[in-house]
Amino acid sequence: MRTTSRASRALVCAVAASTALTLAACNRSSDSESGGDGEAAVGVALITKDSTNPFFVAMQEGAKADATKNNVKLTVASGKQEGDDQGQITAIEDAIARGDKGILITPMSTGVNAAIKKARDAGLYVIALDTPPDPADTVDITFATDNREAGKLIGQWAATQMAGKPATIALLDLFADKIVSVDYNRDQGFLEGMGIPVNDPKKNGDEAKTGKYSAAGGGDYTIVCNEAANGAEDGGRTAMEKCLAKNPNINLVYTLNEPTAVGANAALKAANKTAVIVSVDGGCAGVKSVTDGVIGATSQQYPLKMATQGMEAIAKVARGGEKPTPDAGLDFKNTGVALVTDKAADGVESITSEEGSKICWGN
């Protein structure tokens, strides 16, 4: 069920408190490790998938703000766009050549694994942010949202909105030609949340195209399409147009992220169609889309926590401190997720868009 207003406020305050504690820890670290004892700055590279997606922009800005507090010499780099493996590979090689102590990376795909191994072999401590690599031990550790759980939350919520009615589903994924954990975990998590059986949990599109969803009382489902939108608004619109051409009666749309959702909504409006749209990210623009009714529900993640906690970890390790360890039952450090919606659903814990706007990121 929806959290009570008291519990919701507690969740918001907990996230804010976590951020405050992180900043306080940064200040303490700076004072003790680099404030007056003359310790050298630690070179760290932050390598995101691109520098335009609000999620990665927020991550970069958070890391830049935190670098001085940890006496970190930060270099920010990225691919040119989603899918640019070579851009990330070049940035990794540059970090090795500079003699950096560590790398924070949102890995593009398995195509960058060899370069990450090269960095670790050279002695750099590598932390993945947001996107756990495949396999997970490609990096030293990952700081990320539990993307499977994020997908399950929006799937559970979506099933309550269908309320036993036939669900005619469009799945707007990330790539068609690359395997990325964030892609299959969100897609497969959504299906599992709906109560739709999956086959290979690391492969999109191999589930039965028709059958029964079992969550929230259950009903019939039809999966119309799995279309790649490349995480972008224009990609979301094009992907949705392709899906509508296959079946104009789509009433439920899963989107990998909120820019994709906005594009999908534009395509639906142009076709004079409506559908329930769910997504993942929780940026301020996405939360506003929930407020405006464009997105029914989104799973909010916290990129600033990923970047700042990862930055602190590398600085600590470089100075001889303890290495971070995964959370219990996971192979990564979980930085949290909360479902944001203004339509409460029994059995699905959530916060409102007003509450989500207090802890969102980006513009």
UniProtKB/TrEMBL annotation:
Main location: other
Transmembrane segments: none
Domain Periplasmic binding protein per the UniProt entry, residue ranges: 44-321
Single GO MF annotation: carbohydrate binding
InterPro entries: Peripla_BP_I (IPR028082), SBP_2_dom (IPR025997)
Keywords, comma-separated and alphabetical: Signal
Localization: Cell envelope
Cellular component, GO annotation: cell envelope
Keyword tRNA-binding set for record: no
Protein biosynthesis keyword on record: no
Family per record: Belongs to the bacterial solute-binding protein 2 family.
Designated name of the protein: Sugar ABC transporter
Originating organism: Knoellia subterranea KCTC 19937
